[in-house]
Amino acid sequence: MEFGGPVPERINGRLAMIGFVAAIAVELSKGQDLFAQITEGGGVTWFVGTSVLLSVASLVPLFKGVRAEAKTEGIMNADAELWNGRLAMLGLVALAFTEYVIGGTLV
């Protein structure tokens, strides 16, 4: 649970993966950019609720003694999850920056 440990990065990565997919889905379906989704669409309430729910759900296996690092075989392993989370974090930042620069939706 310490700052440099794997738990904070896993939780942030999971939230970023869901956030990135949700942001692109809303852009495609409603045509709202990321900033409009957050300010006009009630996005803050959904973000806080989802963050709390996923954070607690991510900690349950840890409290039961199950370590995500133990899963090392197959394509759905601990390293793949970390890298997907990192890429999703970068994707959200890139999406926000691009939309800010062009002044509208990306897709």
Automatic annotation (TrEMBL):
Taking the first listed entry, what is the main subcellular location of this protein, grouped into a coarse class?
A: membrane
Cell location: Membrane
| Record's keyword terms, sorted | Membrane, Transmembrane, Transmembrane helix
Q: What membrane topology is annotated for this entry?
A: Multi-pass membrane protein
Instruction: Give the transmembrane ranges.
Output: 44-63, 83-102
GO terms for cellular component:
chloroplast; membrane
Q: Which domain of life is it from?
A: Eukaryota
Please give the PANTHER family that the UniProt record associates with this protein.
Answer: UPF0041 BRAIN PROTEIN 44-RELATED
Report what the protein is called: Early light-induced protein 1, chloroplastic-like
The organism encoding this protein is Punica granatum (Pomegranate)
